Structure formats: structure tokens, C-alpha cells
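Thread: Modeling a multi-component assembly for a lab meeting

Hi all, long-time lurker, first post. My supervisor asked me to bring a structural picture of a complex we are working on to next week's group meeting, and I have zero experience with this. I have the sequence lines for every component (318 residues in total). Could someone generate the structure of the whole assembly? Inputs are pasted exactly as I received them:
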Amino acid sequence: MSSNAIQERITVIDSHTGGEPTRVVIDGGPELGRGAISERRQILKERFDHFRSAVVNEPRGSDVMVGALLCEPCDSTCATGVIFFNNTGYLGMCGHGTIGLIATLSYLDEIVPGEHRIETPVGTVTARLQEDGSVLVRNVPSYRHRKDVTVEVANHGPVTGDVAWGGNWFFLVCDSFDDLSLANVEQLTGLCHRIRHALSLNGVTGADDAEIDHIELFGAPRSAAADSRNFVLCPGGAYDRSSCGTGTSAKLACLAADGRLVPGDVWRQESIVGSILEASFVKDGDAIIPSFAGTAFITSEATLVLHPSDPFRTGIRS
Ligand code: PYC
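Re: Modeling a multi-component assembly
Sure thing. I ran the full set together rather than chain by chain. Output:
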């Protein structure tokens, strides 16, 4: 095998968290060495990007699929390390994916209820598998980076929002939208694409010039049990069916910075499909440590087959 060859059979377990799919690779991933998980993500990106594409892109996956490659952790107190990826690239953290990962390890009888530490490229998170099967994730420190940034958006006009980190970079639009429904996904997706383009044109970034690759809109919830409804456009152009764990963390960071939520308050974030993540936070200096809880369901166990003469063995790439 050449140094960037990948295996012909990849074992995966699929789940969904609030409607958003996660595909955990449990066997057949490339050898990435024993460096920090962030270094291993870089190796995956530079040498094995075709593996990412084979796992999540069509014809074996779809634009909405998030992949999770299990890695031996550097810290032996961690249950696992993980690298999350999607149809176009790599994520820092992934909230719905962490819930899916814990549900998968539980399904495989590899973990029991209790607390499990997981190394991600952006820090170690803790996930508590609860007796009822739900998972409470304690995320990486999250914070608002910029408040009230206004950009001119094509075919729309000025849009004001906050830039915040929740394990990925988000632009959280301040206006409230009254049309956050599945019937409007096409228009919402188009608007978010144009907002993202406007941020890039205007040089609006996260810390250290990091690209803001997630756009989040908010509106009134449908459920009386929720505080807010969201629509999150992910980096590859798909929308998050869940309310997005890292996006909800970014939202909490903004609410905390505005004094609209205090430590221990519960925030129930409803997604565009009506699923809910229940979140709260504790303070950590100028940042917060958000926690959010949700449930994942296993949807399939599969072996992906990459036939050597299949022209799309490594996925259809744009
Ligand atoms: O739940 O954090 C999340 C997430 C990020 C992208 C898709 N889901």
C-alpha cells in the first residue's frame, strides 16, 4: 500500500442526534501516528482527505453526514480521541457528534453510564452517559469574540450579529426570524451563504483570523418547552438538523456576556426540525463552560466497501 492508501473496508456505526447524523468509524481508518489530536487532524487533512470524502460524501454518505474518526487518546484518562469531519472539511468540536459517539460506544458495550473524557482537536470535553441513555456534554471554554458586527448582505441589506466560539466559529445573527421552518430551508440557506460571503468580503473573522464557517439564525420557538429556535448553516452548505451543540454553546456565551443568562440557568434550544438540546453553563474567567444534553439513536451498522475499480470509491467531490 502507498503511504496514503486507505483500506477497502471501513466499519461504521451511524446514529442521529435530534435528526442530525453522525457516522463513527470504528475500524479501517488511516494510521495517523501518536501526536496530539490536532496534529493527527492535520495529517488526516493533508494525506488522507480522500478517506474523509469516501466516508461522508455520496455515494456512501450525504452532505449532511458528520464523520467521527476514533483515535487512541494521548491522555490515558480519556475514553477516546476523535476527529470530526464533514462533506467539505474538518470540525473543531461537534456537539451532536459527541452525543452520537457516546451512544455508539455504549451500543458497542465499550462504556457504561458515567463520565467519559474525550480528546478533540480543540480540547478535551467530558460526556456523561446517563442511565436513560441521554448524554450530557461539558464542552470546551466558549466565549463571545465580537459584539454587534454589521455587514451588508446581498439581496437582503445590513445584518448585525455576534462572533462567538463554541468549539467552532459562529456568526450569530441578532435579528429574530419568524420563518424558521423546513418549508423555508432553501431561502434560509441562501441567506446564510450570503452572510458568510459578506463576512469574508469584510474581513470579519474569529480570533487569529480564523474563518467563521457556521452561521446561526434565531427565532421564536414552536415548543412551549423551548426558549428559542435556530437554523444553523454548516461549513459544507448543509443545515444542522439538530440545534447544534457548538452553536448552542456560542449562543450561551453571547447570552452570558449580555447578562441575559446566569450560571445554572437552563436554555432549551430548539432546532429547525423541532429537536431540543438543553443547555446551561458555569463561568470560567472571561469565558464560560457550556454543557448541553441530548439523545442519539443508532440507525445502522455497516461496512463501507471501496472497490478498487469504483470511479467514486473516494466519494463525489465538488
Ligand atoms: O452539534 O456542534 C454540533 C455540530 C456542528 C456541526 C454540525 N453539528
